[in-house]
Amino acid sequence: MTASPTAHSRLAFKVLTVNVHKGFTSFNRRFMLHELRDAVRQVSADVVFLQEVLGTHQRHARRLANFPDQPHYEFLADSIWSQYAYGRNAVYDNGHHGNALLSKFPIVHYENHDISIAGPERRGMLHCVLQPPERDTPVHAICVHLGLQEGHRQQQLHRMAALVRSLPEGEPVIVAGDFNDWRGRAHGLLLREARLREVFVHTLGRAVRTFPAPMPLLALDRIYVRGVAVHTPVVLPKRPWSRLSDHAPLAAEIAL
Question: Which residues form the Endonuclease/exonuclease/phosphatase domain (predicted)?
Fold first, then answer.
């Protein structure tokens, strides 16, 4: 992270997004949150977008000896990311989970938007306003997890675009998370309605396959940007990520 940029210098930082699957591997075979924390640290990201992160789960806490006492987003943030925000989406008898954002920049405001459409599937959009050091302009970081049904996703994408359009024109926007958009229909809609471009599509010509992590077939996870000077994909190694969650992560370098 750039330590002390001037008003006219370029600020460069790294972002990471990963669906942590509540700290478990594919099919919930093993609890891997401790190993996941080590892997997240190794990326050295300044801003981390997390989906399916547990706030609490009483049954897991009773049966797993290494289950953290604190919420998982706090456990992952540890001493590396001093700022974090959590948006609770799904609540059940044993606990709750949702989206979270970890940041080395101050989070001056955050709001969780409930974008659930119908039925038991609960989805959210966590909007955080970050204030990089010695910069007049804030950065908007929006962590999302969209629905499994195409009709629900389309409505959620329209809501996302409306939120981005409502933000001041000169303020950079980063939207990242699990879009569940295996048909690739989000790109055109978000470009038309909110001028959001996906980092990997813009640079490589295609979205990156991230699911299932051991052998990715579907491009479900995305990083979209608006109002940034440079956005460059970061290639992450297959291991250890292929055994830490059911989703592979995505990372990118952003410059303002």
Answer: 17-247
* HSE toward the beta carbon, residue 77, CA cutoff 13 A: 21
Q: Is the pLDDT of residue 222 over 70?
A: yes
Q: Cite the beta strand spans of the chain per DSSP E.
A: 12-19, 47-57, 83-92, 95-103, 107-114, 124-130, 139-145, 173-178, 197-198, 221-226, 230-234, 250-255
Question: What confidence tens digit (pLDDT) does each residue in 80-89 have?
Answer: 999 999 998 8
Return the CATH class of domain 12-255.
alpha beta
Distance between CA atoms of residues 161 and 231, nearest Å? 20
**For the chain, domain boundaries:** 12-255
The whole-model pTM stands at 0.93
Confirm if 115 and 124 have CB atoms less than 8 A apart: yes
Specify the higher pLDDT residue, 66 or 188.
188
Given the DSSP bridges, would you call strands 230-234 and 250-255 parallel, antiparallel or unpaired? antiparallel
Find out whether 246 and 38 touch, Cβ atoms under 8 Å.
no
Contact by Cβ (8 Å): 223, 215: no
Q: Is the dihedral of CA 58, 59, 62, 66 positive or negative?
A: negative
